[in-house]
Specification:
The protein has 184 residues and is mainly alpha-helical. The chain has one domain (39-183). It has helices at 5-37, 45-64, 106-121, 124-137, 142-164, 170-183, and strands at residues 74-78, 85-87, 93-97. The chain has a 3-stranded mixed sheet, with helices on both faces. The chain is elongated.
């Protein structure tokens, strides 16, 4: 019995690893197809606000550090997606729900886009990918899954703080989040 225990444990680990890996791959394929079906918006309103926020953020970052972000976030509209989100690491794309812009005023749109730009500027998707790799390897450890939930909470909190830091009004940001959640 003792000679089979290590092989049995390796088999259990390999099954868990494969399951988590295949689940993540299926999710990635689903998001990739959703991005392929997304289109550039007919209205330039959201894109103009996104570029203005990116330029302002880059200007603030440039004054504090010497690094510059060369990538511009692609703005894509989707009929399938329920809330805004940034996808990709090297060529980030902001996936925007099709009817959301019509329900938002410019101030609300700017607050939500500032939150998403903060994710891009902080390289949150790269950090999430690194943690997914660790999580896939150590799938059996509950502490790893707890860390992932905490990291998501902290990423969101940091981006919320980035939106509010430059002097945005908290009421507008809160109202923006309510409008997005109601439209989902």
């Amino acid at each position: 019995m003792d000679e089979w225990l290590p092989a049995f444990l390796v088999l259990i680990w390999a099954l868990g690893f494969t399951t988590v890996l295949l689940t993540r791959y299926a999710r990635w394929k689903q998001l990739s197809k959703m991005l392929e079906r997304s289109v550039r918006p007919e209205s330039v309103r959201g894109v103009e606000i996104l570029r203005r926020i990116e330029n302002a953020t880059k200007a603030r970052t440039r004054t504090r550090t010497r690094t510059r972000t060369r990538t511009r976030t692609r703005f894509l509209v989707s009929n399938e997606f329920l809330e805004p989100g940034v996808f990709g690491i090297f060529r980030p794309a902001l996936l925007w729900p099709a009817q959301l812009s019509d329900r938002l005023e410019d101030a609300h749109l700017e607050a939500i886009l500032a939150h998403e730009v903060a994710h891009v500027q902080r390289h949150d998707n790269l950090v999430a990918l690194i943690h997914m790799i660790v999580e896939t390897i150590f799938w059996f450890h509950p502490f790893d899954w707890w860390i992932e939930r905490k990291m998501v909470e902290e990423r969101e909190r940091a981006c919320d703080e980035a939106v509010l830091r430059p002097g945005s009004r908290a009421e507008i940001y809160a109202d923006s989040m309510l409008k997005v959640s109601r439209s989902a």
